[in-house]
Amino acid sequence: MRCVVYHGVGGPEVVAIEERPDPVPGRFEVAIEPAYAGVNPADVLQREGKHPVPAGTPKDVPGLEVGGRVVACGEGVTAFAEGDRAFGLVSGGGLAGRVIAHERELFAVPDALDDQAAAAAPEAFLTAFDAICLQAGLGSGDTLLVNGASGGVGTAAVQIAVHLGARVVANVRSEELRPRVAELGATALQADEAFAHVQEEGGADVVLELVGAPHMAGNVASLARGGRIIVVGAKPGDEATIVLRDLMSRRGRLMGTTLRTRPLEEKARLVQEFGRRIVPAMAAGKVRPIVDRAFPLDEAVAALDYVRAPGKFGKVLLDLADRGG
Fold it and tell me: What predicted TM-score, i.e. pTM, was given to this entire model?
């Protein structure tokens, strides 16, 4: 297989495309050959030595998700067979022509999703669903504020919330992208306008923070009584100052979360709950993964630079069609 490899820690100079032997699935694992691979900011942080790799995970091949066709199954696998399409989470090794995943961290790809959508869905939609629904408890009739709503997780969160009957206010820095986010069902505004609009409407029940420290004061000021702020994205070293009594007076909660380092059982429960509540909406075309751009595998360095750049609408992918035999 061909795959992205990091030779040590650093910048673009440590990135290479190499041929590696095809990995073999363990007892409860499957081998998947994806047509595309999702690129995430965490892949860049891993390259820079700022995102620890869990034990037992390939340390030099990045990638946190997979979507494609099953080509081999371990002897204990019962949920999938060769030829099935599957997508889900991996702890590493996702930017490759063959990816190993545990069957309990996967679910079947709906026929409505093509290969690009299958690759773009797992990390973005599972992160958004876990954060706003399972942790922050978003429900029908609630108001959700999404800061950084035009990226992969942001567009997923907007669609999930709208599907569940919530009102969504989207903070979108790019004026050009605001109409596209609005088409997903959100009120899309720039930061100051978004905070003001939420406050006029009585406050946000949930705030999804995908940018980091710059928004924290506005987030607290925009909370409804009993509101929850959940931080999913921030720059390394980000620090924020908030007025604690403002948080207290709103009986607010401030939470942070990541997916990669969670135990198998936790991720398996998340995947199964997502499969029950959101995958049927994908199958019906009510929510859809959005792809900003797909780079050829040989342009992985450019893709990793691009995933950090502002102004994206949806996910960044690598096209693995030339992955070889």
Answer: 0.94
